[in-house]
Protein 1
Amino acid sequence: MSDEANPFESLQEQIDDAAVHLDIDDGVLERLKRPERVLETNLTFERDDGSLETVRAYRSQFNGDRGPYKGGIRYHPGVTRDEVKALSGWMVYKCAVVDIPYGGGKGGIEIDPAEYSMAELERLTRSFATELRPIIGEDRDIPAPDVNTGQREMNWIKNTYETLENTTAPGVITGKAIDSGGSAGRVEATGRSTMLAARETFEWLGRDIGNATVAVQGYGNAGSIAARLLDDLGTRVVAVSDSSGGIHDPDGLDPRAVREHKSETGAVEGYSGSESITNDEVLTLDVDLLVPAALGNAIDTDLATDVSADVIVEAANGPLTPGADDVLTERGIRVVPDVFANAGGVIVSYFEWVQNRQRLHWTEERVTEELERVITEAFEGIIEAYEARDLQNLRTAAYVVAVERVANAYAQGGTWP
Ligand code: NAD
């Protein structure tokens, strides 16, 4: 069964849910629910056989009241205008809830990158960067990697921008390779903020995370690093999964060894000493903590009734359908929302930008320390709103904090012209 919602409508609903608890003028609320502008463009580039191909691409700049637009660029056949709009809005509220001085943006090209050679992807990326050039910039809009893009694409975009502008502007994009101006600690950032969010939540609940059990769905960048860092706290990682299936060991898996096994064999399945279980069994296992770190809409209303974890920390973006979220709230299961828990990526992107602007490098220790400070302060803000306003769950609390910050920034600037 699927109760997936249109992502743009889900975003608007989340803002409405938060606004009920705030005193915001209706006209301003409408502004907070819609993008300021969306670029829709068609990119024509040369294939390796000399033929030309034209593909659709977007960049949505949702809200810039708190700072330059910030958000990734994805390459995926499922990219749509509505999806890009929604994702750009979530970036606004993600940056606001962790209080970094950015607005939100998102972009995408509607392609399956697996169908193109590296040279074709480079020409396409440079073509997109040329279209984006008038609207991006270190103080305007700062893209980053997203689904199917990474350091390579970011380095090409930086190079295209700097060449056309005849300048040096490493802060025009984040998620770059270290030698092109990237930051230490960026690769680990999302897994680290997930671990920190879990640690803070358990402390708030008066529970010992060092004695807890955890199941992790998805064993890529976010999931495998969160598992490793939780294991470092003493948490027992009893189950993990990837797209090929799950593995379970009630005595605890070694997350590093599972990662090595996956690198060698392509899957977590078959890891020595573990039993195979299904992906759904990983999500419904009786554990203290569940970390969904795969795709959106992983837990729907039906599955939510079978979830046995006490706490869910969302490493993935939107792993719960809106119906599942309601069921879990009713069942008293604590859900630590994605906009906060997986914000480590954008927070360290912000540190990368700060280092680029100041032309200096931070050590990995400094990045880790600053990330911990930003996450713990953001958690305090969410809990304060949750308790003081008697809100229904932590997601609403995070949106109340974030929407209020954006509305205040707009009000302080005033309406002009
Ligand atoms: P990734 O591609 O590195 O890993 C995804 C993992 O999920 C893979 O191991 C894949 O096999 C697994 N998977 C896919 N379908 C599955 C299924 N049905 N059941 C179980 N596992 C499944 O991606 P990532 O960068 O780790 O991102 C994961 C999630 O975290 C996404 O929702 C992403 O939007 C979100 N996120 C990532 C970052 C980041 O910096 N990497 C930042 C913010 C949010």
Note: Residues 190, 217-223, 241-243, 279, 293-295, 315-317, 342, 345 surround nicotinamide-adenine-dinucleotide (CB under 6 Å).
Protein 2
Amino acid sequence: MDGIATAEGLRWPTDPARAMMRHEQPIMTKSANALARTAYLAAAHTPQQLPPDDGREVVFAGRSNAGKSSALNTICNQNALARTSKTPGRTQQLVFFEVVKGKYLVDLPGYGYAKVSKDLRAHWQGFLNDYFRTRVALCGIVVVMDIRHPLREFDLDMLRFAADRGLPAHCLLTKCDKIGRGPQAQTLALVRKQLPERATAQVFSSETKQGVDEARAVVAGWLEV
Ligand code: GDP
């Protein structure tokens, strides 16, 4: 049999190369960038504000200025997607972007720059701890770090969260255009040596788009889109 019956009863060739040889047009069912239609959905400061916990979601975490917003925009091939999460007041909110229905990218604000009261900070930390401990939809964490300053305390915390939950983590060593290929490879090897089980790493640049396909594939794979 040359094709698969879909829910709609359509068929498409399972082997595009073979179909080409027979001059058939292979029908591509997925867009080249499965994340390209990602759009802002909502922000949550309390558990009640979270979307229903029945989909799949990937958290993007990173220290302030690591290049997280740029990475989110680059991976989704959009210009201003993650700007929303930088508006004042959003520093203590999980910002949800919907990739397709029920599949989310979650922007976790960079640590430490919000000047807030002790009570508010305690609330936020409690919320985050509960979210990471209990959120069923959470299927992976992308840890964004400047390649020149990798594996700082915040990054290690995130990797620990992932390891404690048995979740995969993927490190983006961003701004790799700022250093040469040799140092890139050296840093990547050093970082990989220190990663816990189920954690991976790659070099990345929003400037030159180096590593974008790899990052996109990891995230799309986790989300199953
Ligand atoms: P965030 O605070 O982690 O969201 O960081 P941003 O994405 O806002 O980036 C912080 C700064 O680093 C901005 O000036 C960006 O233009 C710059 N930046 C981000 N990614 C890259 C990159 O891959 N290469 C270079 N050269 N600069 C970058």
Note: Confidence is low (pLDDT under 50) at residues 1-16, 24-30.
